[in-house]
Known about the structure:
B: alpha/beta, Rossmann fold, 33% helix, C: mainly alpha
Amino acid sequence: MPWDIKPDRPIYTQLIEQIQLKICSGVYPPGSRLPSVRDLAQEASVNPNTMQRALAKLEEDGLLYTNRTSGRFVTEDTEMIKQVRKRLAEKHVQDFLKKMTELGFDYNEIISIISAMIKTEEMKHE
Amino acid sequence: MNNILECRNLTKIFGTKKALDNVTLSIPRGRIVGLLGPNGSGKTTFIKLCNQLLTPTSGEILIEGKIPGVETKKIVSYLPEKNYLSDWMKVSDIIGLFKDFYDDFNAEKAYDMLKSLGIKPNDRLKSMSKGTKEKVQLILVMSREAKLYLLDEPIGGVDPAARDYILDTILRNYNENATIILSTHLISDIEKILDDVIFIKGGQIVLTKTVDEIREEIGKSVDSLFREVFKC
Amino acid sequence: MLAKLLKYEVKATARFFLPLYVALIAFSLINRLLNPFEAVASPGSPNIDLNLQVIISIISMMAYFALMVGTLVMTVIVMIQRFYKNLLGDEGYLMFTLPVKTWQHITSKLLVAMLWAVLSFLITAVSILITANVQHLGDKLRELVDLVRTYLGPAGPFIIPAYIFLIIAFYTVMVYAAIALGHLFDRHRLAASFGMFCVLYFVYQIISAAFIFLLSTTIPDFFTASRMPTPHELNTLLAGPAIISIVLTAVNFTLTNIILQTRLNLE
Lengths: 126, 232, 267
């Protein structure tokens, strides 16, 4: 999964989100070891100090932990990861709902559209 | 000594032109700093003053607390805009030169990086294209374990793929005790790798912030802000 | 650091001079074999081969002279060009950011320029001796040394090479100072350097003339004396210009050093 850093939002915030995403989607599985700050920064083409700050924040939040000799690891607490996943999902839905209401749909219409689109997607995959 | 570079009221005048006007700055260690401004804003003049390629008209500039001279040149690694390699040399000659004069030069690292570009020790500099020579110069500069790197327009006249290579090389050789000062007017490419940005216009500093401060407080990318500040 | 600079300076310039020297010696050997003098000395012979030999010899001789003159001219040009290109051209960006003092840069260029000047001179002399097929070289040299001793005293044979070194150094440093002064101009630096050289040379001439004037007033009978001057007198006479040259060389060197250290402004 490539890093996607957009130009108009703080890089630090975007890095946090992207790492959370990678953890939730299994790119960095629970308990796995993360690459070094330097390697991650190089991969994302960002400043290592910024990457370090993002990782530090995630450690603070408990999603990552540091073992002094062996490096940084993803937490093994799958409950926490589920929580983060749920929060990210809720945020996406919130953004989605905001945009849909801006378009003028009410909640019933929104649910109908979603059901219809899911059916279409399911049929595509058969 | 937390600041690798300090300058106070630094002014440089060429004849009637004030290239740098009363510049006061402090740059700490371990930062990647972008010195951003249009052509002729004083970026190159500033960098040359750090190197003793120019001497101040007034004010002072200190590298690790010392006036630019033999001692500071030992810890400063400089990449000029120009190509400064002698055509008659082979790659091994120029590596030998750097090794002879700079104690902090890592020849092995240099050869490795050159190898990944397909450049061999016996290749003659004369036979290389302009782009290849630029990369050789970059590799030489980044193979030093210096405390301050001064890169003057490193991605200037170079194609996008080469730009990525250059930025990648810079990140790969990053050392948290060293500071890199990059001057450029091509900002969108390098924004993400910078810690701090300094906007310079007409020889004066107009802004000093971190990249994320700009994105958060002003809500724009550094590139957008630059376009605004330096609108013609 | 100076030793390292010398190493690179020699490396950069040897690739130019060594082939030239080899060619010079080779040509002188060829000329010796063709024996042009002997060929020309016996023109009475109606031998066609001999005429051909004469033509080849003459062409070879001309090529040889051209090469000789070329060597001496090239030595001067390379000496100037090395200083100008390596220190004040694009390569200056590398040179002046090396952790090396400015005077070491100037000195390394000077020493290597002197090296090639002396070598060019020696190789040219050797090649002439080979061509002319001088016999009993050892005896002739001994005669020469004795001659020098009679005029200049026992230290004579050492004074002459020292003087030659001084002259080479003097003019080389004058060129460097001229180039450094030319560098102070914003545009047309090359022309300015040339002009500055004329100025420096003019200053030197004035000082020399003043010295000769001084000499003629203090030793009025020197120029009217009908006998050969004694070694002591000759040495004293040579000392004057020598001291002037040494002082001017030091002044020019210091001038160059100051300019390059504080007024450098590479394109």
